[in-house]
User: What shape does this take?
Amino acid sequence: MIQAGQKAPDFKLVDINKNEVTLSEFKGKNLVIFFFPMAWTGVCTKEMCTVQEDQKVYNELNAEVIGVSVDSHFALKKFKEDNNISYSLLSDFNKNAIKDYGIVQDQFAGVYTNVSKRAVVVVDKAGIVRYVQVTPTPGDLPDMEPVKAAVKELK
Assistant: This one.
């Protein structure tokens, strides 16, 4: 699993409009990556909506925010619209990023395999991981206060 102090693995994902997005595009910006298992599940929806509510805080701390799941870009587009999310949602449908970050959830909801663990990764302007939080189970929400504190230290 990715650790603080390591260089963040680059990724090549697609946004809701099928535009390719890479980690290297965020160089020079602080970035908070919220990895979540699946759109529309209760805890994932609550988490992504909480991140939306905190968007002003991240903006004030000069940090970009993205959400990443293994859902298709089609599903994420509808999820974003339904929940009035302003930050980018990226599809890791091929599961490369979650493998590179070491956050693969083997079993989810008793039916699905190899989705993302619920995790938050804070990456600084130089592409170095400064904070990682992985919840004990996919049913747990991340503790947002340490995430915000980690971002504040980068300001």
In short: The CA atoms of residues 14 and 134 lie 23 Å apart. The beta strands are 12-14, 20-22, 30-35, 63-69, 88-91, 104-108, 112-116, 119-123, 129-134. The chain has a mean pLDDT of 96. The chain has one domain: 12-154.
